[in-house]
Write a structure and sequence with these properties.
Radius of gyration: 38 Å
Number of domains: 2
Number of helices: 8
CATH architecture of the largest domain: 2-Layer Sandwich
Structural class: alpha+beta
CATH topology of the largest domain: Heat Shock Protein 90
CATH class of the largest domain: Alpha Beta
């Protein structure tokens, strides 16, 4: 929306004056040219003064005409009463403009005709143009107001959409935090049941660190990949207290991607899913591998394990964590983000592929 245009679609008085100056100047040059062709040249200033009352008179009446157009709208269904109001109003405007024309011209271009006769002549000769201008003002005001209302609705819709998106992301984030907490507490409870007090205390200490990091993240929906990996490492340390060296974790992320932005708590649900479905079921233990690479302007993250893979009924792809991740990626990045959960082809295990737009916390290319 132009800065000079008001939100209701109207324009400030100075801009209205400038807009009506255009036809005034054009009429002035037209009068000068016709006077020269008729061998009766007239100074430009005199021609301007003689033409000004008609156009600037309409400029002065424009706010009144616009107000009448709103009070007695000429929109479907058309009401006869409203048409009559505008017909009378246009005649009154024409009469006032004709009177101003006659008075000014009697001073700048004196003639033998009386003021009443001059007014009548100006009224009859200018009536078509004045009437057309009257209804043009109403039409333009309707168009401007309709455009302004449309833009206002679009602005409000955009604000509501942003608020809805923020609320949805906040709800998804709040859903994920208790889910993670309950799973961590279950792991600690298992240690307590096994009467492994020392490791249970160690796990509680790690959980305290994780919760502190969670609280410090406030309501941020994005974090750097380095911070996300740090959070994931702390979470896995809790699980490692329980499972020891049977749980092996490999992180392969280039240093230049540590500043890349990712959704907060993006990776933990997939690692949790690996722990729940397929790994740590064998005495030799299993491995979880997290990798990150770039492809053009896309950040590609993979979480892979060498466990038993997806169950045939697909439970692992419908849990709270993965469903949450899908919703968050959709809300934050739309169709530019991708998420797939599949069984490995060459060997046992599950592979999670995530792709999202590559952005960094510093704004610089990763």
């Amino acid at each position: 929306m132009p800065r000079s245009e008001k939100r209701d679609g109207s324009f400030p008085a100075w801009l209205v004056f400038v807009m009506w100056t255009v036809p005034t100047v054009l009429s002035t040059f037209e009068t000068v040219m016709f006077a020269r062709l008729a061998k009766r040249p007239i100074p430009v200033w005199r021609a301007f003064v003689s033409e000004a009352p008609q156009w600037y008179g309409l400029a002065l009446f424009s706010p009144i005409i616009v107000a009448l157009g709103e009070q007695f709208p000429l929109r479907r269904p058309i009401r006869i009463g409203h048409v009559l109001v505008h017909a009378v109003a246009s005649l009154l405007v024409s009469a006032c403009v004709a009177t101003a024309d006659a008075v000014v011209n009697s001073l700048t271009r004196p003639s033998r005709a009386s003021l009443l006769t001059s007014t009548s002549n100006w009224f009859l000769s200018g009536l078509p143009a004045t009437t057309l201008a009257y209804f043009a003002i109403i039409g333009i005001s309707y168009a401007l107001r309709s455009t302004a209302r449309l833009r206002e609705r679009e602005r409000q819709a955009a604000e509501l959409e942003a608020q809805l998106r923020e609320a949805q992301l906040g709800a998804l984030r709040m859903q994920l935090q208790p889910h993670f907490l309950f799973n961590s507490l279950n792991a600690i409870m298992a240690l307590v049941r096994d009467r492994d007090t020392e490791r249970a205390i160690q796990a509680l200490s790690l959980l305290s660190d994780v919760l502190r990091a969670t609280v410090n993240s406030a309501n941020a929906h994005e974090t750097t990949l380095a911070q996300e990996l740090d959070f994931l490492t702390r979470y896995l340390e809790i699980e490692r207290v329980r499972f020891g060296n049977r749980l092996r974790v490999t992180v392969d992320v280039p240093n230049d991607l540590h500043d890349a932005l990712v959704p907060t708590f993006l990776l933990q649900p997939f690692v949790e899913n690996s722990l729940k479905h397929g790994i740590l079921r064998e005495r030799t233990g299993n491995e979880i591998k997290v990798t990150a690479r770039t492809l053009n302007d896309t950040l590609a993250i993979t979480v892979a394990d060498d466990g038993r893979g997806l169950p045939s009924h697909g439970e692992s792809t419908s849990g709270v964590g993965i469903a949450n991740a899908r919703s968050r990626l959709e809300h934050m990045y739309g169709p530019t983000a991708r998420l797939s959960v599949r069984n490995a082809v060459a060997a046992a295990g599950t592979i999670v592929d995530i792709s999202l737009p590559l952005r960094t916390a510093s704004g610089a290319p990763a």
